[in-house]
Specification:
Layout lengths: L7 H14 L8 H15 L4 E3 L5 E3 L6 H10 L5 H28 L2 H13 L1 H7 L5 H21 L2 H15 L6 H13 L5 H30 L14 H15 L6 H24 L10 H29 L8 H26 L3 H32 L6 H4 L2 H7 L7 E3 L2 H8 L4 E2 L4 E2 L4 E2 L3 H15 L2 E5 L12 H4 L4 E6 L2 E5 L2
Parallel strand pairs: 3-4, 3-7
Antiparallel strand pairs: 1-2, 5-6, 7-9, 8-9
Length: 512
């Protein structure tokens, strides 16, 4: 692994590139509000919570706490939370790039293949975008890669230290993203079904790895039940996955391979072919796996790693499907949610091709064609990545974008007396940009449950009462038009109120 040093310049380039992409700070969205608020309240001693517009601290259960805890630790050094997040995500981008290359180098012994995988990660517009948001995915990817590597070593050697490491990393990943449950499922599946070992050893190994991994999730679930009466702030229900979701996932996967200007039919077809090809290669490697006989050879490392990656990919897809069906129908199948599959697909594809080529002994023509194909895709990806980097540097993302930074409504709210209550359709933006807590305008449709809100009329009445009796104001950004699926129209929300401010990006209403 001494050759790992050759990957360090690429990792450093990744850190510098992410920093270059975020001069206005990391992209800020709705979930960023909870991570930032959680970090600041941890630092203030209020725990992992958010402050309601009434000033009451409300425990956060919809999101796990570890990413916010890391931000709070950095903020404790005197660094602003948003600046700390920018520095952290820049380092995490470099760390993920380095880990991906290190896994390839360890599994194949090929520095060239490791550099190829690292370059593909560095150039990827999707990975660049995911890491440039103030979200927990970058930290989750680091922990997931370390967990899968430790699990691979545990399967090969049976050493309890590797099992403990794999379990602890899976538990930590769960505290970053609840989808980390897929890591524990992968461990249990492989350790229990691993052939060639007596059942007593399988049960012991599973208990070591999964048992230690369940400690953190169990502790967090108990905390949430005590403080909020719910383990993850999600309600069980049944919502069939619509065809649009499958097309959304296919669209996301296709953009990992080809630019958006390519006709959608060609992109989707390419995504299906490549996806099935990677899956078939992984299954082919799994079928030829000789457990316990070649696990300590160079090829054995690659085979075991492919099996682990394949199992994790399947577990992640199944867990995502269950979540969409029973917990959260609104989950978008975008780069962020599918980012673990990008990493595992890239790794599994490169390692599987490496193993299959070792055994097939193809001719020079095949190798040359494969090399040209990969090189062409990498160049195309790098061009797209450079374009994405330039756009992020110039415009930013989300609430940190140039348009939001120049918001006239945000400027107006900054000058508003702190004693004036606010209702708005963008409470996250007001907190992140103006430092003001606000009430959410009444919600007509719950996208998580895919059902109407039964308390909509009560919410509407409460808002009008607070505006009339307490002098609250209604701040509506122009993004209301994009939220009509869940929110009422401006006319309904502002009925009986008078307009006091008309700005380029929104309007403010108050009582007569």
């Amino acid at each position: 692994m001494r050759r790992l040093i050759w990957l360090l310049p690429l990792a450093l380039a990744g850190v510098m590139l992410l920093w270059y992409c975020t001069p206005m700070g990391l992209g800020l969205g709705g979930d960023s509000y909870y991570y930032v608020s959680g970090a600041r309240n941890i630092l203030s001693g209020a725990g992992f919570a958010r402050l309601a517009a009434t000033g009451e601290a409300r425990p956060i259960t919809h999101f796990p706490p570890l990413y916010s805890a890391v931000l709070a630790s950095l903020s404790a050094l005197g660094i602003d939370t948003l600046s700390a997040a920018r520095g952290l995500n820049s380092l995490l981008f470099g760390a993920n790039l380095l880990l991906l290359g290190a896994v390839i180098l360890w599994a194949t012994g090929s520095l060239g293949l490791a550099i190829l995988g690292s370059l593909a990660f560095l150039a990827s517009p999707a990975m660049l975008s995911v890491h440039s948001w103030l979200l927990s995915e970058p930290l989750y990817l680091v922990l997931a890669l370390l967990n899968l590597w430790a699990l691979t070593r545990f399967l090969e050697t049976g050493r309890w230290q590797s099992g403990l490491a794999a379990g602890a990393l899976a538990g930590a990943a769960y505290l970053v993203r609840y989808v980390g449950l897929a890591l524990l499922g992968t461990s249990a599946l492989l350790l229990l079904l691993l052939p060639g070992r007596p059942w007593r050893r399988r049960l012991r190994d599973t208990a070591i790895c999964v048992g230690i991994g369940l400690l953190a999730p169990a502790g967090w679930a108990i905390r949430n039940l005590i403080t909020a009466g719910s383990t993850t702030n999600r309600v069980l229900g049944i919502h069939a996955i619509p065809a649009e979701k499958l097309f959304e996932a296919a669209h996301t996967l296709s953009l990992w391979l080809l630019p958006g200007r390519v006709p959608s039919g060609i992109r989707l077809g390419t995504a299906v072919v490549v996806g099935l090809g990677v899956l078939a290669a992984g299954v082919a490697v799994f079928i030829r796996a000789r457990w316990g006989r070649d696990s300590q050879t160079q090829e054995g490392h690659a085979v075991t790693a492919v099996v682990v990656l394949l199992a994790f990919s399947v577990a992640s897809v199944l867990l995502l499907g269950l979540s969409l069906t029973f917990l959260d129908a609104s989950t978008p199948l975008d780069d962020r949610i599918l980012s673990p599959l990008f990493v595992t697909s890239l790794l599994m594809g490169l390692l599987s091709v490496h193993v299959l080529l070792l055994n097939a002994r193809p001719g020079r023509a095949v190798m040359l064609g494969l090399g040209l194909l990969l090189s062409g895709w990498l160049v195309l990806t790098a061009i797209r990545g450079a374009s994405t980097a330039s756009r992020l540097h110039s415009d930013g993302q989300g609430f940190a974008g140039r348009q939001w930074q120049a918001s006239e409504i945000v400027q107006w709210v900054r000058g508003l007396s702190p004693q004036v209550p606010i209702y708005t359709n963008e409470l996250n933006a007001l907190y992140l940009l103006a430092g003001r807590q606000a009430f959410q305008v009444p919600i007509r449709w719950d996208p998580v449950r895919a059902a109407p809100r039964e308390d909509y009329e009560q919410q509407l009445a409460a808002m009008r009462e607070r505006i009339a009796d307490q002098g609250a104001v209604l701040v509506l950004f122009d993004t209301l038009a994009e939220q009509q699926g869940a929110l009422a129209s401006e006319a309904e929300l502002a009925s009986g109120l008078r307009m006091t401010v008309r700005a380029s990006d929104g309007v403010v209403y108050a009582a007569w």
